[in-house]
Amino acid sequence: MSLRFYNTLTQQVDDFVPADGKTVRMYVCGPTVYNFAHIGNLRTFTFQDILRRWIRARGFETLHVMNITDVDDKIIRSAMQQNVTLEAVTRPFETAFLEDIASLRIQRPEKLVRATEHIPEMVSLIEGLAAKGMTYESDGSIYYRISKFPDYGKLSHNDFGGMIAGARVDVDEYDKENARDFVLWKHKKEGEPSWPTSIGDGRPGWHIECSAMAMKYLGETLDIHAGGIDLTFPHHENEIAQSEGVTGKPFARFWIHAEHLAVDGGKMSKSLGNFYTLRDLVGMGHTPEAVRYLLAAVPYRNKLNFTMDGLKAAALSIERLRNFELRLKTDRFAEGVNDDIAKRAADAFTQFEAAMDDDLNTANALGAVFEFVRETNTIMDAGGFKAGNVDAAMKLLARMDVVFDVLKPTLAEDSLADSAVDELVAARNAAKKTRNFALADSLRAELLDKGIVLEDTKEGTRWKRK
Ligand code: AMP
Ligand code: ZN
């Protein structure tokens, strides 16, 4: 079976291959950097990472662009309140965002681009729209005339037939029921940052950013445009109007949207005390990979209900996978192959891939792996697992980890490298051999202090991180 995704544009699951058969050109709406990303934002970015990784696992290359929104109403408000420049607000949060996605093992897109570094591209797009009569000016600002774009509403599947002609909006966040002529270029306001350009002194609206940057790096028709579900309307509808208004070509072949994350069944809010950043959760002692697992394990088109119990369960799931991997690496098995296990491993591998191909069904994909782990553990306990089965089981875990990336623990800054642990374990074994139990015990204590737990088995000593 082939790779397929739910496409918001067609409202169905469609087979996917990149237009050139080789490289997937994808654009994802990035963060607005005026605060730390919350775990809802991070769910959307984790989904984009899973999408990217599975596309690559399936043998395609990616040209993946993410924007950094470093100018908008909220950023300007924050800069004015603190009486500092835009960069003074945005750069620290941009750095924090990059740190957060690195801890969550979200791969860096091939290109990360800042809106403020693409003002000329936005201006020329607006000029292109103006040349086609799709814009008008009012009080020095420039608006998109949506009555000139008959396809308006095709992404959100809204019938805007009854829209009020000429109703304008010059803020970037507006209600989701009504279509409005939206602002492309905002006239300079006293005290606000602005750029002197051929279309006047001012600053861009939010929607034009993404059209300009996406087309600059990816061409007129992208393979995939992705983001959170809330961006479907108006943001992505407006991106289509801007891009297709100028090029006359489809802007993106696939539109893929991730459902929202809720906390304890409701909206996250600071006043309810259930608003979390990754830093909050790590500060409470949770690992970034447990957060990653939790965000990735629910298929992206399902609502995700974040709870602390769910986070603990995610950590336990990772623990089970790691323990299984440790057994495969350190247990001593009888020679030969157990044909039943060989078949189960091959079936689980096929099921994993089929589930991922099926619109990234991460829950079913993990289900196939866990069923194999459970059954195999039982067979191992009974002595039925053979040395010739190790490779296939490792191959299944490796395939899972290409996407989920949770097997390797995040090392604390003061923790020991694997090779250093191996050396200390060897030194302890040597001490035991010479019956120097005091030294052996102190080495064990030293390792425990660094978060390393030893287990003496009949096959020798194995260790894991706490
Ligand atoms: P922003 O930084 O506000 O521009 O948002 C960055 C991304 O997070 C966008 O793709 C949003 O759609 C997404 N997003 C915002 N809130 C949530 C949420 N509660 N759950 C999942 N994604 C969200
Ligand atoms: Zn965007």
Structure description:
This protein starts with a strand and ends with a strand. Helix 6 links the parallel strand 12 (222-228) and strand 13. The chain has 3 domains: 4-258, Rossmann fold (3-Layer(aba) Sandwich); 305-404, Up-down Bundle (Four Helix Bundle (Hemerythrin (Met), subunit A)); 418-465. The chain is built from 14 helices and 17 strands. The chain has helices at 39-57, 73-82, 86-103, 119-131, 206-218, 232-247, 278-283, 288-297, 308-330, 339-357, 362-381, 390-404, 418-433, 437-449; strands spanning 4-7, 12-15, 23-28, 61-68, 111-114, 135-138, 141-144, 168-169, 181-187, 195-197, 200-204, 222-228, 252-258, 261-263, 304-306, 452-457, 460-465. The protein is of the alpha/beta class. Strands 6, 7, 8, 9, 10 and 11 form a 6-stranded mixed beta sheet that branches. It has a 5-stranded parallel beta sheet with strand order 5-4-3-12-13, with helices on both faces. A two-stranded antiparallel sheet has the order 1-2. It binds adenosine monophosphate and zinc ion (ZN). Residues 29, 210, 235 line the site of zinc ion.
